[in-house]
């Protein structure tokens, strides 16, 4: 490996290559994280869609399957956030970093830092990056609008340099990356590495069912992967499918029905009571879309679960970065990372030869 690929990200996370596997709900499980870590990258477990008991088992599984460090992703608004934090701290000898969107307080961040756990939030706007650093973030992951799932509107090529100029901590580039050219380009911008979600989802080590993976591989045009607010009121980049189209075309009552159905299925994870569901139902009828969006924000994982776990891609939603349109193969994680590293080294060597 060339010295150019051994960045400060590798030093801080303890990985061989500056390649991060992001924490996709229902997808980033112990097997995918282990495959990533053993191949030299750095993987995050998606604790945001895990119960406390499941996360405990998944952390134990990664610890047993690899000697490499790994990370855990969570959200402060999930009901078991406090328990997730304690689990991370109990495993601070191996959990090297935590990632999050809506971040924990400065007090909680200090607990992580005191335990030697790096704080590595993902942001989609310059102001959010600056605020994260103020609160104590050690590394910032910047996701441009090309990225999958919840996303902003600013392309990576514009957002990345803004953040690089504004903060003094290492910056990881996300949104639109899937090969060695992208890694070389991110390093040329000044980033410490890249983070990828969709590219890891589309591997043979991914737990995503075959029927759902077929939908991803079949995409040929980036326009088929677009941002929609239909799921929870916030822009999420997803692959067009019959369910999404029905949700977008449906009126108030249909969206309310979907929200309540998802809430019922998600009760075991959220702790939502029947009384709370009834209260939210009547609030939604009075307040319209605003209450529905609040309900859907807590229950959108169910819509993803149908595709990612149950293998019913036309009955749920398919979060995806636009890069899926450029991907037609499902290599192993080890093959993927080695291909990216080799291509990045070749591109960087070609640049050096021009000087």
**Helical percent range?**
40-55%
> Quick one: biggest sheet?
9 strands, parallel
Widest beta sheet: strand line-up: 5-4-3-2-1-10-9-7-6
Number of helices: 16
The fraction of residues assigned to DSSP E strands is 5-15%
Question: Radius of gyration from the CA trace?
Answer: 20 Å
Q: Oligomerization state of this entry?
A: single chain
Alpha-carbon distance between the termini? 21 Å
Count of extended strands: 12
SSE order: HEHEHEHEHEEHEEHEHEHHEEHHHHHH
Overall body shape:
globular
Uncertain regions spanning at least 5 consecutive residues: none
Could you tell me the mean pLDDT? 89
Instruction: Indicate the structural class.
Output: alpha/beta
Walk me through the topology.
Blueprint: H1 8-13, E1 19-21, H2 30-38, E2 42-46, H3 52-65, E3 70-73, H4 81-90, E4 95-99, H5 106-114, E5 118-119, E6 122-123, H6 126-135, E7 140-143, E8 149-150, H7 156-166, E9 171-174, H8 180-189, E10 193-196, H9 198-201, H10 210-218, E11 225-228, E12 236-239, H11 242-249, H12 252-265, H13 267-270, H14 274-287, H15 289-308, H16 333-353
Parallel strand pairs: 1-2, 1-10, 2-3, 3-4, 4-5, 6-7, 7-9, 9-10
Antiparallel strand pairs: 8-12, 11-12
Question: What can you see in these coordinates?
Answer:
The protein is globular. The longest helix has 21 residues. A 9-stranded parallel β-sheet has the order 5-4-3-2-1-10-9-7-6. Strands 8-12-11 form a 3-stranded antiparallel β-sheet, with no helix packed on it. Helix 12 packs antiparallel against helix 14. It has 355 residues and is an alpha/beta fold.
